Amino acid sequence: MSAMNNTSANNISEDYKSTSSMDFPSKPEGIVWCSVFILAAILIVVENLLTIVLFVTNQRLRKKSLFLVINMAVADLMLGAVTLPLYIYLVGKHHYQLWSGSVSQLFSYCYTIADNISMVASLITATFMSCERFYAIYRPFRHRTLSVRAYCIVIIVVWTLASLDTIFLIANLSKYYFFVWFSICTVSIILICGCNIAIRRKFQERIVASSLQQTRDLQSKRLTKTLLFVSALALFCWLPFASVFSLNVLLDLHDVIPWRCFVAMSFVNVTNAFVNPVVYAYRVPEFRQALARCCKIRRIVNTEDFELRVANTAALTTPTRLRNLQTLRDISNRDLQQLHFEEEVLDTKL
């Protein structure tokens, strides 16, 4: 959404006013768009807040592999709770003329900071998410030795890079800001695409392993597919906005590209924030089970859960299976003895 603004927060209001009058939408259209963004903001806040609450209150969700998921949920929550309300007010005033009033410089700064930090942090988190899954697939034993501290350092790096990019924007350092922003986007695109391709090739290799190892591989594979889908979705929602913003800066196409195109791409960009929790609830068993307990509904068993149970059953050790068979034999012998006793009693009575 920052593409609709100038690279400086000092003249954000002037940038909104500089849009051609021919590009101004009608008030009914403005009401529709504002309603759509309000609904999106509500969904983003409710879903991501629920995701964070489930993570905090359920011990099974507090796993290292889900730390980056929660970090993305925090960035998306910031987008829905802070950025979108400010954005709706700005476009409703300057483009739709739905309400009157002046926009202070502090208001513009708040919008620019929240907008830039939330979206850049979400993109960088998606990038690290792909890299973490790449490391988990290609170096599984070393990945298991990663400490919580390592994940915390990654999260700190995410917010540091997002804040650094925002500082260049606020300080009116347009050239440096675009260089940092373009570098982050380019590196993110390369890493996300590269990790997805490499992991897909790894999945195509057939490895013969023990039953217990197959169970772990199945769980890791399902989580990897989920997180790769989330990172690819973030990239897909980001690319249209990033492409138009880059062309706008490099070729000065602000007066050429229709304003409605910016609004549509902004909506595509924010859809990622309320789709992610749905993906977690559908694809991550721990989230689904925690959500079921929270809502007091019965958990629906799907095909993947059945595959896990079959794999877990196959992973039982040989002594365990022998003990189970011995127990069944003892029960059968007791039943036979009881049957013979009842027959003898019956014969005596006769």
Note the beta-strand portion.
Answer: under 5%
Proportion of helical residues: over 70%
Q: What is the average of the pLDDT values?
A: 76
What is the rounded distance between the termini?
94 Å
Task: Spell out the blueprint of helices and strands.
Blueprint (H helix, E strand, L loop, with lengths): L11 H6 L9 H31 L9 H28 L10 H34 L1 H5 L3 H23 L3 H31 L6 H41 L7 H25 L1 H11 L7 H12 L3 H32 L1
Helix pairs in contact: 2-3, 2-9, 3-4, 3-9, 4-6, 4-7, 4-8, 6-7, 7-8, 8-9, 8-11, 9-10
Short structural summary:
The protein contains twelve helices and no strands. The protein is an all-alpha fold and 350 residues long.
Q: Would you write up a description of this structure?
A:
Mean pLDDT is 76; it is low at 2-22, 297-303 and 345-350. The protein is 80% helix and 0% strand. The longest helix has 41 residues, at 211-251. It has 350 residues and is mainly α. The chain has helices at 12-17, 27-57, 67-94, 105-138, 140-144, 148-170, 174-204, 211-251, 259-283, 285-295, 303-314, 318-349. Helix 3 (67-94) runs antiparallel to helix 4 (105-138) and helix 4 (105-138) packs antiparallel against helix 6.
Keywords:
disordered C terminus, 350 residues
